[in-house]
Design a protein that fits this description.
Order of helices and strands: HEEHEHEEEHEEEH
Strand content: 15-25%
CATH topology: TIM Barrel
Number of domains: 1
Helix content: 10-25%
CATH class: Alpha Beta
CATH architecture: Alpha-Beta Barrel
Distance between the termini: 26 Å
CATH superfamily: Aldolase class I
Number of strands: 9
Number of helices: 5
């Protein structure tokens, strides 16, 4: 979320989390001077970072009332553990392709609340493309995960068929936007209806 009015419209839908990006290089960066009221939401708010200093994350999350942080960089398990010890819930993102080594997640098992599986790309912050979801069958861990990466309005049926025991939810972004940071309410509403049929 980037704009207050759009955030207010989205949170009227049956969504559980609202993401706010604090990575200056992202097209969805909330900005140095955010719109008034942007973070005044009763929904669960997730602050998204890439390779940010842990103490910067803590300060910002506490000051703005975030309970969740989503880490999209090379943050190690010790950083995740530090944030959790300070009361934050941690979602750690990993970029998947056919060569991804799921054993690399073992170090994070006790230091994060959730994983987010995205498509591998050269730049952090998502590529807008899907990875081969069959790769998920190789994940045997105990940490629940969100599915991300290029999910669009036509994917509802395929997502309904996913039966992985740790599959928790989906991250909807570029496939439901009119422009970076502006969600299309009609597309979201229709998709949510289709996926919960």
């Amino acid at each position: 979320m980037k704009f207050t009015q759009n955030r207010e419209a989205v949170e009227k839908l049956p969504v559980d989390f609202l993401g706010f990006i604090f990575y200056p290089k992202s097209k969805r960066f909330v900005g140095e001077n955010t719109e008034p009221g942007l973070f005044h939401s009763a929904k669960t708010k997730v602050a998204v970072f890439v390779n940010e200093n842990a103490f910067e994350i803590l300060g910002l999350a506490k000051n703005l009332g975030f309970d969740y942080v989503q880490l999209h960089g090379k943050e190690n398990s010790k950083t995740c553990q530090l944030l959790r010890k300070q009361g934050l819930k941690v979602i750690k993102a990993f970029n998947l392709n056919e060569d991804f080594d799921f054993s690399s997640l073992n170090a994070y098992e006790k230091s994060v609340d959730y994983f987010l599986f995205d498509t591998k790309s050269d730049l952090p912050g998502g590529s807008g493309k899907k990875f081969n979801w069959e790769i998920l069958e190789k994940y045997q861990g105990n940490v629940p995960f969100f599915l991300s990466g290029g999910i669009g309005p036509d994917d509802a049926e395929a997502i309904r068929k996913l039966e992985h025991p740790q599959f928790l939810g989906i991250d909807l972004n570029s496939g439901f936007e009119d422009e970076p940071g502006v969600k299309n309410i009609e597309k979201l509403e229709k998709f949510i209806t289709n996926i919960t049929m």
